Amino acid sequence: MMLADFPLFPEQASTSAPMVDTLYLFLVVLCGGVSLLIWLVIFYFAIKYRRRPENELAEEQEPPKLLEIAWIVIPSFVFLGIFVWGAFVYFHLARVPDDALDIYATGKQWMWKFQHPSGQREINTLHVPVGRPIRITMASEDVIHSLYFPAFRVKVDVLPSRYRTLWFQATKVGRYHIFCAEYCGTLHSGMIGWVDVVEPTEYQRWLAGGAEGSLSQQGEKLFQKYACNTCHTNDATGRGPVLAGLYGKTITLSDNTTAKADENYIRESILVPTAKVVQGFQPIMPTFQGQVNEDDLLKLLAYIKGLGATQTPTPLAVESPASKQASAGAPPSTVNRQPPTATSTNP
Ligand code: CUA
């Protein structure tokens, strides 16, 4: 209670916040306590063993063995304990729950852009439902930024070269700060925003307010615009690999190594197609580096992911009738999607 009133601590508004704060507070109290103890002992000994008569000399003494062992063993276990505790919190922060709702973010000098699977876009504001894990997949359009939600106690660097993810589950309805936590140029301090945590029903209502089609629908349009569909057909006759059901799979490359078709693999395959060529295919695809911006990359990603979520039953994107049609040529097992859950973003 006292902690919440202390102005240096932001509000605790996520499931991770209490875990992070407890560890942090433990470290502060431990370090503060030990420092205080050392200072007290210094003063006590300085007075007790002060030099008295001019000619009196100190006698050297070996410390007792038991004391020496104690001051080695006890701190070692304390430090190991801190390590295990810290690792536990770290793994909790690193492991995204399976039922997380996907939101995409782009950082650029100097703003935050957020895209929801249903197509809604926001700048420097983010709407999320309360009580639901949110996974943010993000990249930067220019330099390194860092997406920081103080009230949720999560902060992850946003890189220009690959996707990174963070997740949180908000526990309280309210409005909380978004900061950029990595110096990124003149207006770094202005690269801020608000996250609006709302009730799930209100989130649905907010999502229903106009959008230019879902993210994967927009991705599908880009897929045609960039003529990806001329090579990536839905049967094995195309010059490029079939993309339906690709996401989450492990694939064999031309040099006989394997790679997992995750977000970063798909990203790299669009920007640097020759980096990892699928076995049995020629490295003929041109690079799209510099042609597709981060926003469009995320749309393409949402579309390709939606072509068959073989890995997790997460409702990643709203399936449009058009994209169902587009993937109709693929084997049914990879096209069938889990029905959206009650809190999914189905309009
Ligand atoms: Cu973006 Cu600092």
Describe the fold and architecture:
By secondary structure, the chain is of the alpha+beta class. Helices cover 34% and strands 18% of the residues. It contains nine helices and twelve strands. Helix 2 runs antiparallel to helix 3 (65-94) and helix 6 crosses helix 7. The model is unreliable at 310-347 (pLDDT under 50). Dinuclear copper ion binds next to loops. Dinuclear copper ion (CUA) binds at residues 107, 110, 145, 180, 182-184, 188, 191.
Quick recap:
The protein is α+β, with helices and mostly antiparallel strands and 347 residues long. The chain has nine helices and twelve strands. The strands form three sheets. Strands 3-2-1-5-8 form a five-stranded mixed β-sheet, covered by helices on one side. The protein has a five-stranded mixed β-sheet with strand order 4-10-9-6-7.
Keywords:
347 residues, alpha+beta, 5-stranded mixed β-sheet, 9 helices, 12 strands, elongated, disordered C terminus, binds dinuclear copper ion
- Helix percent reads 25-40%
Structure summary, number of beta strands: 12
Mean pLDDT: 82
Q: What class, by secondary structure content?
A: alpha+beta
> Count the helices. How many?
9
List low-pLDDT spans. 310-347
Secondary structure layout plus pairing:
Blueprint: H1 2-5, H2 17-48, H3 65-94, E1 101-108, E2 111-115, E3 121-123, E4 125-129, E5 133-140, E6 145-149, E7 154-158, E8 164-169, E9 174-180, E10 193-198, H4 200-208, H5 215-225, E11 250-252, E12 258-260, H6 263-271, H7 294-306, H8 321-326, H9 332-335
Parallel strand pairs: 1-5, 4-10
Antiparallel strand pairs: 1-2, 2-3, 5-8, 6-7, 6-9, 9-10, 11-12
Helix pairs in contact: 2-3, 5-7, 6-7
The structure holds dinuclear copper ion.
Dinuclear copper ion binds next to loops.
